[in-house]
Write a structure and sequence with these properties.
Elements: H1 7-11, H2 15-25, H3 41-51, E1 73-77, E2 83-91, H4 100-111, H5 117-125, E3 132-138, E4 143-152, H6 156-172, H7 177-194, H8 198-210, H9 216-227, H10 230-240, E5 247-252
Parallel strand pairs: 1-5
Antiparallel strand pairs: 2-4, 2-5, 3-4
Length: about 260
């Protein structure tokens, strides 16, 4: 949520402070239990008995986070680095927002699988990077869109230009139906892979509970993905991925004229 700790704060941390944090926040009022798999009455009673041993305390109060800064470009210098780490994105919204699933489709088409537009451009065509990815990232209170890549130091600006070019292409040109169908199949298959087994089901269940919903949202999300059209993709890209709204961060060695 935009808060980073200085390493000196870790050096100054005491055992008493850690114990106090555990005592205040690791309580029955601040947790829930998810059971997934072959669960019978015996297992439920055993888990319930363990959960009953959790200490009681006050429910966690919502922590207030600082408002996001308006900086749109940042450079973190690492002299001698042979690669630049690139991040391009913006703060958007959490999973509950009606456009979250649609923006997942946009992010997947841009850089969410091996044959995505960014991979074809930066890796296959130009050889700027081994891998580049874009995604919608979801937290309990917020969510953001981001593109991430590591590129050779000498092609940092060229790679950024190509990323921006692919974003702008999504905003100005309707996506071919065949490409969108592939993206939909990729996303649906990935959802099925995540749900293949009790551990994945438990993880998805936890996320849905934290988002204030239940597992019926899985089928709804698949339906919404399947209903996306090229016009929907273009509309969302135009609405949320305007160049002036994006934040660019580069970490690496400073280049002449950069």
């Amino acid at each position: 949520y935009g808060i980073s700790s200085d390493e000196r704060e870790y050096d100054n941390l005491t055992r008493e402070a850690v114990a106090d944090f555990h005592r205040r926040f690791y309580t029955a009022e601040n947790c829930f239990v998810v059971c997934s798999g072959r669960i019978g009455e015996h297992e439920l009673q055993a888990v319930g008995a363990l959960a009953a041993q959790l200490p009681h305390g006050e429910a966690e109060t919502a922590i207030r986070f600082p408002a996001p800064e308006t900086t749109h470009a940042a450079f973190v210098e690492h002299p001698g680095a042979v690669q630049s780490s690139l991040r391009l994105g913006r703060l958007l919204f959490p999973r509950q927002h009606p456009d979250f699933v649609g923006m997942q489709v946009v992010a997947t088409a841009l850089g969410g699988y091996f044959g995505s537009r960014l991979m074809q451009n930066l890796r296959e065509k130009h050889g700027y990077t081994y891998g580049v990815v874009s995604a919608m990232v979801n937290f309990e209170r917020e969510g953001y869109f981001a593109v991430a890549a590591q590129v050779g130091t000498g092609v940092t600006q060229e790679a950024l230009q190509e990323i921006c070019k692919e974003i702008e292409r999504l905003r100005t040109e309707p996506m071919p139906e065949e490409e969108l169908a592939l993206v939909k199949n990729m996303m649906t298959g990935e959802m099925m892979r995540i749900l293949d087994g009790p551990f994945g089901i438990a993880d998805v269940t936890i996320e849905n509970i934290l988002c204030g919903t239940d597992n019926t949202v899985i089928g709804e999300n698949i339906r919404r993905i399947r209903q996306m059209t090229p016009a929907d993709v273009q509309r969302l890209a135009r609405k949320y991925l305007a160049k002036e709204d994006l934040v660019t961060v580069i970490a690496g060695a400073r280049q002449p004229n950069s």
